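Worked example 2:
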Amino acid sequence: MPVALVVEDEPEFSAFVISAFERIGFNAFAIEYTGNNSEIVNQSSDAEVLFINLTAQGDELELAQVVLRQWPTIRLILLSAKMGSLHALPPVVFVRKPTTPAVLIAMIEHVALSANHLPGSGILH
């Protein structure tokens, strides 16, 4: 079964994203971001999709860069209200805050199903 990792600190939001992945057949796990990039990179080795909710601190942006360098085949979904700092990333799926549950579900399904049907094909553009 494919794996998705969710980096999100709000338990309710994390549960929503996990259930969206599980609904389409993924094993999904929440990871609380503690600033330890290597821990998440190690856990990402089996993941096909990584969902990151970017905060104002920007540490998650660094995490995204580290994960993509280490595991370039992982599909990445970023949720953020700040677009300006994203120029440092390769193409990823970006969802701008505020958003709706329907948009999040649609993006998760699009990326996850693409990852599931096109293993190892690289980052979704």
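Strands lie at 3-7, 27-31, 49-53, 75-80, 93-96. Residues 117-125 have pLDDT under 50 and may be disordered.
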